[in-house]
Amino acid sequence: MVEAEPLWWEQLGSCFVRHYYQLFESDRAKLADLYIPESLLTWEGDILHGKESIMKKLLNLDFKKIEHTITAQDHQPTPDNCVLSMVVGQLKADNDHIMGFHQIFFLREINASWVCTNEIFRLSLHNFA
Amino acid sequence: MVEAEPLWWEQLGSCFVRHYYQLFESDRAKLADLYIPESLLTWEGDILHGKESIMKKLLNLDFKKIEHTITAQDHQPTPDNCVLSMVVGQLKADNDHIMGFHQIFFLREINASWVCTNEIFRLSLHNFA
Fold this sequence. Notes:
The structure is a homodimer.
Chain A lengths: L7 H19 L13 E4 L2 E4 L1 H9 L6 E12 L5 E11 L5 E12 L2 E11 L6
Parallel strand pairs in A: 1-6
Antiparallel strand pairs in A: 1-2, 3-4, 4-5, 5-6
């Protein structure tokens, strides 16, 4: 059986996701390259506008060490050839309990580079009855 | 204290989300109005392209009755004035256990109507150690 060529948005999205979490875990300051002045990040309901505010938020998150495990990721092209990615996974920050999270990225090609113009992050906290 | 005017994308996104789950629970066939021939839906990893395929999928989901409870929703405008919405919640289908889910919508204004060009749905299933 011949394996199908991965679709370009699948390839691009999964490549971005791998790169993002690698940088997030090893050298968060380098995430700056992924954002532009128009980027928006909503982090647990807190809205940050622009590379500078986003990086300030990310660099001041209250843990020293973090590990992510991705449970599922989905990618789609939008009608104007951007890429929309949704990640669901688990994270472990310092010695805290493992927590579920979900995160989305909206990726756009600008001057031959792919950047993240929109990102939303939430921990998966439910009050199950 | 004067309450701030809700931002247009917050208003639009939360209005769409309310409308979507109301129709989903009461009359799923009416969801067809929210999609266009270019719409993409990824439902638990299954990719559907176009209003017709999407509606076939949604109308054939294997439950009679479903209820959604939204835990959190976030909305953002994209640089070209689309709206990106992320919902995390819980659902109860027929007599099954309550399950967490997350879902994203990418909304675009076309001919003075807002439609959903991209949607991704996943149940929040993790294998916690």
